[in-house]
Design brief:
Strand order of the largest sheet: 1-8-5-4-2-11
Pfam family, one: DM13
InterPro entries: DM13_domain
Protein name: DM13 domain-containing protein
Keywords: Membrane, Transmembrane, Transmembrane helix
Number of strands: 11
Number of helices: 1
Largest sheet: 6 strands, mixed
Length: about 180
C-alpha cells in the first residue's frame, strides 16, 4: 500500500510540474516580456510624391498633436499631412514609448484623457486601425484611408490590442 501511495504521489508531482511548465510557457508567449528590453527604432522619411505635376510641393499639415503617456511613458508628436498627390499620411515623429505585444496605431473619436481614465477608451467608439506599430521609437508614416473624416476622428492612440490598453495618445488639433 505504501508503495502505491509513493507511486501516485510521484505521478501527481510530475503532473503538477508539467502543468506548471506549460503555464509558464504560455505566459511567456502571451506577455512577450523580452520586448521590455528590446527597442525597435524606425527612421522613415516623409513620403515623396514622384508622379505628380506638383512634385516638390511641400506636404501640408492638416492636424497635429502631442502624445501623452497612458499605460507606458510615451512622448512624441503626431501630424496628419496632405501630400502633393492628395494622399493623407499620419506621421509619428520622435516617438518614444515602450515596446509591447501587438501594438497598433489607432485613429479614434474618443477624447484624450490624462491618467488611467484614458487607458481603455480608444476602442469603445468609432476607431480605425492603421496597422501594426512599426517601431516603438523614431519617425514613421501610416497612410490614412481615403474617406477618413478628420472632423470625426480626433485622436490617435498607440494601442496594445493584446491587452486593450493605450500606451499613449494625442488629441488632434486642426491646422
Amino acid at each position: 500500500m505504501g508503495r502505491i501511495r509513493r507511486l501516485m504521489s510521484k505521478r501527481v508531482v510530475i503532473g503538477v510540474l508539467v502543468a506548471g511548465l506549460v503555464a509558464v510557457g504560455a505566459g511567456v508567449v502571451w506577455f512577450q516580456p523580452w520586448k521590455l528590453w528590446v527597442d525597435e527604432t524606425v527612421r522613415e522619411a516623409l513620403p515623396a510624391v514622384t508622379d505628380s505635376p506638383a512634385t516638390g510641393a511641400a506636404a501640408r499639415t492638416l492636424a497635429s498633436g502631442e502624445l501623452i503617456s497612458h499605460e507606458h511613458a510615451t512622448s512624441g508628436s503626431v501630424r496628419i499631412l496632405r501630400l502633393a498627390d492628395g494622399t493623407r499620411v499620419l506621421r509619428l515623429e520622435n516617438l518614444d514609448t515602450s515596446n509591447g505585444p501587438d501594438l497598433r496605431v489607432l485613429v479614434a473619436d474618443a477624447p484624450v484623457k490624462k491618467g488611467t481614465a484614458g487607458w481603455r477608451v480608444f476602442d469603445d467608439g468609432a476607431h480605425v486601425s492603421l496597422g501594426k506599430l512599426k517601431g516603438n521609437k523614431g519617425d514613421q508614416n501610416y497612410v490614412l484611408p481615403a474617406g477618413l473624416d478628420l472632423d470625426r476622428y480626433t485622436s490617435v492612440s498607440i494601442w496594445c490590442d493584446r491587452f486593450d490598453v493605450s500606451f499613449g495618445a494625442a488629441a488632434l488639433s486642426r491646422a
